[in-house]
Amino acid sequence: MPHSELGLSLNDLDPSAAAPCRLPSYEAGEALSQAYFENVHFQYPFLHEPTFRQWEENVYHNTTGSASSTELFFVNMACRMSLPQTSKANANRRGIGDSPVCIIPQQLYASALLHIDHMLAQKNLESIQALLCCALYSMRSSVGRSVWNLSGLALRQSIELGYHRNVAKLNLRTNSLKLELRKRVFWCAYQLDCASSINLGLPLSLPIAEVDTEFPLDIDDSSISQDGILGLPRQTPDEPATTTSHGLHQFRIRCIWAHIYASLYSLAASQGHGPESYQAQVSALRKELDDWMAETPPEPCRSGAPITVFASIEDYKITYNESIILLYRGQLTKGSNEQSAVLWECMTAATSICHSCKRLYIGKPINYTWSTLHVIFMAGLTILHCLWTSSTVRQAARIDSVSSTFTNCTKLLAIMAERWEGAAPYRDLFEALSSRAMAMVVEQNRDNGRVTVPAPAGNSENPNTEDLEFWASQIADFGMPDTFSDLLSGLVNDYSPSAANFQDNLWEL
């Protein structure tokens, strides 16, 4: 399949930076690939570092002929994914060789795309690895084809090759390295597809019930070769983490997500649950989430500063709290005796997400991604809904804490909007809704004699309902789960101060 049919086009790139370039010096390239394996590889271990090092050696030191397209593609992509999406304002502060960093990232991607047709024509392990590289590029960049499209292509090609099936049952005759890599590429494709599908409110490309392949071994890359496996895999959470441990931990949480979707949100689930069986399923899945968090591997040691949030404890906290909201989101809009407890649980999780994101991103030279934007906005939206819906939650919440959380969330969205124009509607809409919510919360507490913070200053340029509807429509174009779309629609509809029963609807529930 030609790259033009996949949308992997140089037209996505800045015209001033789209020309392919030479690789950086061997020393710089080696440092970049080391950063890749100490950061990106921990969460997405679809490459094999010893094999990559041989490719790298052939690219830089081949004396018998030119390097292969496979070698050139992966070396260029590993270097690209180790560089930040630096703005032009910072172009002259950092560089590699004679080239500014703001130009090199896109040029390296352009260099890799010179070989993408060859890679995709193979329809083998390397072609899936190439698609996963492109998906990760899109995830960490403001340009490129959607992660959902690319991960879906990688997953479908994995299915076509039978990678979703149990290796032992297939009785394959191949070496240990290929057996492990086929499991790794499948689970990397599955975790990307699962996360992007659920975040966009789309069905999973492959139901978890159709998957029976094993997880990869929890073992260092250096212990796997074509000749076999050296040493024993990691067996318990108490043992030191390997180069695969964090990837496996991500595979497990996406499997839990897939089970949550299948058990609670699929069409079959919506038609087959009574109240008791639904709650029993939620309780069982909650235990799986708690067990997963308790078994989180320790943060890895790196030779340099981290370039991603992958494998950090704060990132795992975000994933855990995001999973809590996923588990309970079907109950956010349902009136029940237990709803206040569910709303408080979700608000607590969403608040934790906002504070974790502040610690990870504000003042740190780490790239934001589309998934970061999504999780921050959904956390903020969840807090707004919980406050606006439940008097119990409003009474239990500390107003200074709510104010701090809104400030953090607004600041994060504002910083992202400065770097990526597509984030502007998220910033504008949340700023308007949170400002209105805080004014009303403070006013209610004044009436109750519980003033803890001053009332927010009035804004003569408050947006009207049409502004909010416009921003909401822009956000909807990116996609979101139905539950959050309903929450957003409800908040926007309730925003208009001209609605006669607005105050009653909001506070007298």
UniProtKB/TrEMBL annotation:
<keyword id="KW-0805">Transcription regulation</keyword>
<dbReference type="GO" id="GO:0000981">
    <property type="term" value="F:DNA-binding transcription factor activity, RNA polymerase II-specific"/>
</dbReference>
<keyword id="KW-0479">Metal-binding</keyword>
<dbReference type="GO" id="GO:0043565">
    <property type="term" value="F:sequence-specific DNA binding"/>
</dbReference>
<keyword id="KW-0238">DNA-binding</keyword>
<dbReference type="GO" id="GO:0005634">
    <property type="term" value="C:nucleus"/>
</dbReference>
<protein>
    <recommendedName>
        <fullName>Xylanolytic transcriptional activator regulatory domain-containing protein</fullName>
    </recommendedName>
</protein>
<dbReference type="GO" id="GO:0006351">
    <property type="term" value="P:DNA-templated transcription"/>
</dbReference>
<keyword id="KW-0862">Zinc</keyword>
<keyword id="KW-0804">Transcription</keyword>
<feature type="domain" description="Xylanolytic transcriptional activator regulatory">
    <location>
        <begin position="147"/>
        <end position="222"/>
    </location>
</feature>
<dbReference type="GO" id="GO:0045944">
    <property type="term" value="P:positive regulation of transcription by RNA polymerase II"/>
</dbReference>
<dbReference type="InterPro" id="IPR007219">
    <property type="entry name" value="XnlR_reg_dom"/>
</dbReference>
<dbReference type="Pfam" id="PF04082">
    <property type="entry name" value="Fungal_trans"/>
</dbReference>
<keyword id="KW-0539">Nucleus</keyword>
<dbReference type="InterPro" id="IPR052202">
    <property type="entry name" value="Yeast_MetPath_Reg"/>
</dbReference>
<dbReference type="GO" id="GO:0008270">
    <property type="term" value="F:zinc ion binding"/>
</dbReference>
